[in-house]
Specification:
- This protein has nine helices and seven strands; from the N terminus they run H-H-H-H-E-E-E-E-E-E-E-H-H-H-H-H.
- By secondary structure, it is α+β, with helices and mostly antiparallel strands.
- The chain folds into two domains: about 230 residues, no CATH class; about 100 residues, Sandwich (lipopolysaccharide transport protein A fold).
- Strands 1, 2, 3, 4, 5, 6 and 7 form a seven-stranded antiparallel beta sheet that branches.
- The relative contact order is 0.11.
């Protein structure tokens, strides 16, 4: 069955309609519980209004969707397959000579495209809104309506200046005012490629703007030389405010399109980019994971006749299997982050296992 055929378009339409319906239902439930939790947190805060609570709830929603997106697709697929089985449409399709793979092919193609749209369009939006949520949450905690925090633990940055020199910068506190990043109690270590200290620069304050770090009230310490005090010292840098932000948010909050540059930056600076690499690979894996969930749904819900009963068993079995796949994927993902197994294996193994087992069962059912 071709995706462009009448039957292919019909099945794709049914799947997308059920997907949107499940998505809206899950959205309503998650949003309701999120608002209730935020209202509980703000009950003793007269300075926080309902509009602020709604902003926090809505800005956090996209990140939650990233976690439940495969389940939403699986449930939508189960509903679709159950309907075509219950109405005997699947029996008629099979009687017309369409194999189960011909039936699933257009649906797998549509799900894969949905996965690509998710990582290329929806993921950047989700990343931006999660950043908004983090800012709103900090403003709520500090009771400062204009606060923008990067970290309350300070800042550590390592950057390669050239082939022979790199800088290690530490700041005790960091905050943003407009397009300028303000740093306090700053230390800059100039080191060679053998990690030998060449010079240490201490400053009371610094500003990062226009690819330049301007140190103020500076003291320079260099081996064999007296301490030098100057008013200002400038360092050219490739750092930007957006790049600094990425040091204080999870890789999950960085856009799909920005992850490659972030990975290159960390590798050039000598830091580990393992978490970001795994996040980038998991985003590429997500369309295939959606296809795996569709196949899992087909195993449990695609039957020649669902009128014989056992529907509850199929629903519970399908949802339980989906949660099992997700749980195992998170465990294996954690092993990958900790370096126990290769990152590529950690990201792709659960998806490949779910797909292979589902395909094996469907082949058995087809032959039967």
């Amino acid at each position: 069955m071709k995706p462009g055929s009448i039957l292919g378009r019909y099945m794709i339409k049914q799947l997308l309609i059920n997907f949107i319906a499940v998505l809206l239902m899950v959205t309503g439930i998650i949003l309701m519980f999120e608002i209730i939790e935020l209202l509980r947190r703000t009950a003793d805060r007269p300075d926080v209004d309902f509009i602020f609570v709604m902003k926090m709830a809505l800005s956090k929603m996209p990140r939650t969707f990233d976690m439940v997106f495969p389940f939403i697709m699986m449930i939508a697929a189960m509903v679709t397959f159950w309907k075509v089985s219950r109405s005997n449409e699947f029996v008629i399709i099979r009687a017309a000579g369409v194999s189960i793979w011909g039936f699933l092919a257009p649906l797998l193609g549509a799900v894969f495209i949905v996965g690509l749209i998710n990582i290329s369009i929806l993921n950047p939006i989700s990343s931006y809104l999660y950043e908004v949520y983090e800012t709103l949450d900090y403003r709520f905690k500090t009771k400062n309506p204009k606060a923008v925090l990067f970290s309350n633990k300070g800042l550590w940055i390592r950057e390669a200046v050239d082939e022979n020199t790199f800088l290690v910068l530490e700041a005790k506190s960091v905050r943003q005012e407009g397009n300028v990043l303000l740093l306090r109690k700053v230390s800059v270590l100039e080191m060679d490629r053998q990690s030998q200290l060449v010079k240490r620069v201490e400053a009371y304050a610094a500003e990062l703007k226009d690819h330049k770090i301007e140190l103020k009230d500076v003291r320079i310490y260099e081996a064999g030389q007296p301490v030098v005090s100057v008013n200002n010292v400038d360092y050219q840098t490739t750092l930007t405010i957006d790049r600094i932000k990425e040091n204080f948010i999870d890789p999950e909050a960085i856009s799909f399109w920005n992850l490659p540059d972030t990975i290159r930056f960390y590798e050039m600076s000598g830091f580990s980019a393992l978490r970001h690499q795994m996040r980038y690979m998991s985003l590429w894996n997500s369309p295939f994971l959606l296809c795996a969930m569709l196949l899992v749904a087909a195993v449990f819900a695609l039957r020649p006749n669902n009128r014989r009963g056992g529907v509850m068993f199929l629903i519970v079995g399908g949802i339980s299997t989906g949660f099992l796949v997700y749980f195992l994927s998170q465990v294996i993902y954690t092993f990958g982050i900790n370096g126990y197994i290769p990152p590529l294996l950690a990201v792709w193994t659960p998806t490949l296992i779910a797909m292979m087992i589902s395909v094996s069962i469907l082949i058995h059912l087809e032959d039967g």
